[in-house]
Amino acid sequence: MSTLIEATKLKHSFDYELFNNVNITLESGNSMAIVGKSGSGKSTLLHILSTFAMQDSGDVFINGKNTKTISKDEIEIIRRYDLGIIFQFHHLFKGMKAIDNINIATSLSNQKLDNELFAKLEIDSNILQKTSELSGGQQQRISIARVLAKKPRIIFADEPTGNLDKETAHLVMRVLLDYVRANNAGLILVTHDEEIAFMCDEVYVLENKNLSKMEK
Predict the structure, then answer these.
(1) Model-level pTM?
(2) pLDDT tens-place string over residues 88-113
(3) What stretches of the chain adopt beta strand conformation (E)?
(4) Sign for the pseudo-dihedral over CA of 143, 144, 147, 151
(5) Percent of the chain with pLDDT over 70
(6) Is the distance from CB of 131 to CB of 97 less than 8 angstroms?
(7) Which of 5, 36, 107, 172 is least buried, going by the fewest C-beta atoms within 10 A?
């Protein structure tokens, strides 16, 4: 087991203080969920941990490297090879086939396509269709396949099941958690759904500017 992410004393504000003294450690093979009310700063915290926003103070270490002190080129290498980002909305390339969307990710990360992934996500019959021909749930699963296909060490997921029915949401979570265990990876998930959150190894709540662990 190794430490994938260590965040210490994170503080961030916009017009008001969102959170302060936030500390997070994510070990390989583990999954973590963060819940909280809208506006509590969950998504902002995820963006900071994934290098797409910079905190006001505190430090984030990814694989032992401080994201405040390494170069932009090093950040880009980490994003390309080590990180996978799943959003609530799929952000697929329109006009392209589903398989072509996925191939972009594998090409950029120098990975081979894993056809078993399509069956696990129940999209194997959809990958040759154009994204415009797919339902919202199918498009979301294609976007998740695109992330997993690049074989990331750390997955950041912002409400990945928010637009899915309960059965499909549980399917997606099982695939994500199986990936984490099989690849000794890590998952940080932001969600409003406590049932989904408690499928993870650890659950935290962000409220009153602080992050605290919930008992399972």
Answers:
(1) 0.93
(2) 766 787 788 999 999 988 887 888 88
(3) 3-13, 17-27, 30-35, 57-62, 65-66, 83-86, 154-158, 186-190, 202-207, 210-213
(4) negative
(5) 99
(6) yes
(7) 107
Q: What angle do CA 68, 84, 99 make, to 5 degrees?
A: 145
Q: In what order do the strands lie in the sheet with 65-66?
A: 17-27, 3-13, 57-62, 65-66
> What are the structural domain ranges in the chain?
30-47+71-213
31, 202 in Cβ contact below 8 A?
yes
What end-to-end distance do the CA atoms of the chain give, in Å? 22
CATH 3.40.50.300 for domain 30-47+71-213 = yes
Pairing, β 186-190 against β 3-13: unpaired
Which pair of tokens denotes residue 156? 């950041």
